[in-house]
Specification:
This protein is of the alpha/beta class. It folds into 3 domains: about 15-110; about 120-245, 3-Layer(aba) Sandwich (Rossmann fold), CATH 3.40.50; about 250-365, 3-Layer(aba) Sandwich (Rossmann fold), CATH 3.40.50. The protein has 20 helices and 8 strands. The chain has helices at about 20-25, 40, 50-60, 70, 85, 95-105, 115-120, 120-135, 150-155, 155-170, 185-190, 190-205, 215-230, 240-245, 265-270, 275-285, 305-310, 310-325, 340-350, 355-365, and strands at about 145, 175, 210-215, 235-240, 260, 290, 330-335, 355. Strands 2-1-3-4 form a 4-stranded parallel β-sheet. Strands 6-5-7-8 form a 4-stranded parallel β-sheet. The longest helix is centred in the C-terminal third of the chain and has 17 residues, at about 310-325. The termini are far apart. The model has no long low-confidence stretch (mean pLDDT about 95). The chain binds iron/sulfur cluster (SF4) (2 copies). One iron/sulfur cluster binds near residues 36, 37, 78, 80 and 81.
Amino acid sequence: MTTRPDRRPMVSLPMLEARRTELETCAYCPKLCRSACPVSNAEPRETLTPWGKMTTAYLAAQGDVPLEASFARPAWACTGCGACTNACDHRNDVASSLTSAREAFSSRDLAPEAAQRMVHDWEAHATATRSAVAKHISAGRSAIALLVGCTYSLRASDVARDAVAAVRQLVGQVEVIDMCCGKPLKMAGARARFDSHAAQFAARTRGFDRLVVADPGCAVTFATDYREAGVRLAPRVSLLVDEAAAQLGALVASDARTDVRYHEPCSLGRILGRGAEARAVLTTITGRPPAEVTVRGGCSGGGGLLPVTMPAVSQAIAVARVAEHDAAGGGELVTACASSLVSLRRAARGQFVVSDLATWIARALRR
Ligand code: SF4
Ligand code: SF4
């Protein structure tokens, strides 16, 4: 890292003072993580490297560049995959810093139009999620709640159904929560709306002992964004894959397959550290350790609201993962988070089956 010549107050975006260390660390860095970022790999522009995105936010915060949409936009060019942090000697938290930058730019009405539209349409999203989840709600009370997540519920109803069935087999009666965790609001930069939604979610789940979460993306939100908002969930949070890994003996190992390749979602593997659990489950069901997509944990392009704010780049990232899968021999591609599933299914264009670990677990429990 080079020396820092000056240190001036962040007069234009004072909210980013709290991220000064992270922003400065990147701004004065020789960009050692540049090849790790799926966004700048898909669209090779200097401003889209982790260094470029952080430096742009830093310069805007200090007033060195005008507060304009063109300087705000790079903050939304991040899937939150964490690959840069992994590659960084300083373990610099770029994704969370860029989320703070989104909030700072949003407070000046500089969020991209697609992100603003998502916030504007939030009530419609909440209503659609409630209605999609309603079919899984059954009568009866339970001390255990289940969150399926909006993306599975709205865009992969086959997996939502399998996740509900798998969790009921593993833990018994559950109450299905008909809410979204609120992550899209956070990714849009709508901090006040997100904080208020998180408080509502906490109130809705108060009284449960345990909250089982099907989508690791929601679990990341609870572990990071809820904490930052000062919202604590009363129930203990576990993942569907945790429940399955704790009961490997309940999974019937009769899906012996050699044409299965595992795509590890960044949320589940790199961020939540549950790669071993997912592989243990798949290994038990198929009878052998799964082959892997070439870039272990390679980003699918589905996170961070990228499919909404930069759809072409998001699609290019997913297409690159599918091409790696194809080059490695193809077969069925198994992933384990809703945004990866939707992105990879779209990119595969029916050329391969793209399934979710929830479906494999449900099948193994039915046998
Ligand atoms: S994340 Fe680390 S390696 Fe990448 S630009 Fe920032 S400080 Fe440098
Ligand atoms: S978190 Fe991922 S997408 Fe975001 S800047 Fe880092 S490597 Fe790029």
